[in-house]
Known about the structure:
Layout: E1 6-17, E2 20-31, E3 35-39, H1 46-53, E4 63-71, E5 74-75, H2 83-89, E6 90-93, H3 104-114, H4 120-133, H5 137-140, H6 153-165, E7 171-175, H7 183-196, E8 201-205, H8 209-215, E9 218-223, E10 226-232, H9 233-238, H10 243-249
Parallel strand pairs: 3-8, 3-9, 6-7, 7-8
Antiparallel strand pairs: 1-2, 1-4, 4-5, 9-10
Helix pairs in contact: 3-4, 3-6, 4-6, 6-7
The structure holds adenosine-5'-triphosphate (ATP).
Adenosine-5'-triphosphate binds next to strand 2 and helix 1.
Amino acid sequence: MVNKKVVYDTKDLNLWYGNDHALKNINLQVHENEVTAIIGPSGCGKSTFIKTLNRMVELIPVVKISGDIQYRGKSILDKSYKVEELRTHVGMVFQKPNPFPKSIYENIVYGPKIHGIRNKKILDEIVEKSLRGAAIWDEVKDRLHENAYGLSGGQQQRLCIARCLAVEPDVILMDEPTSALDPISTLKVEELMQELKKDFSIIIVTHNMQQAARISDKTAFFLNGEVVEYSDTNKIFSTPSDKRTEDYITGRFG
Ligand SMILES: Nc1ncnc2c1ncn2[C@@H]1O[C@H](COP(=O)(O)OP(=O)(O)OP(=O)(O)O)[C@@H](O)[C@H]1O
């Protein structure tokens, strides 16, 4: 088996919201070109963990962090690591689709324009490539200048994925990206993830066990802010090492 490169490496990562110890000694390596699923019951720290990976949590004043997070070998908690730089490598898709109240085209070119790209031909190419990459081009190619709010929820979510792709990230963080979608849109986004992992690394928080089993290569089971078990998804779902993992995936608690 080829040894895949490590994208994220967290070392004794701890996080507190005031006195609430939300992440406890997380040591986890995320590999490139894989889908890594984060599962666990409500309130166990899944969202906190992925928002730590792009430093979104630091917007919350009561947050304290100790330990280290290395992204591609560099410590992103280091004050010298610019958050703007991190965000060019790490995109995020949220639970509820959140397109801007602008046209489909403007949603996609927003990031590239911030990065200084002004050439219309290049922007047009980015729009087509990103929408194709997010498997929504055929559905929207004739209405690029219509407002994104006119799209269905599932289309809006794929548009948000396309918006992420437009700035050519390395990692895509997804926080329950299909929980607001119908089964058909969910399937489309899941199929899309399988395509995207050829070029990107994906970390997804999901409450849906079947989804984690279907789409991910590795799974981390979080409980009360700790990682109980982290392993190949096949192993987690067939022969988990920890009784608590087994109880959770078989629906005995959580
Ligand atoms: N902004 C915040 N301020 C204070 N405490 C917070 C904040 N966000 C989360 N917490 C606390 O941190 C813990 C972990 O929450 P988090 O949202 O990361 O869990 P989760 O596993 O993603 O839950 P869910 O599955 O319900 O979304 C909880 O005890 C929660 O109350």
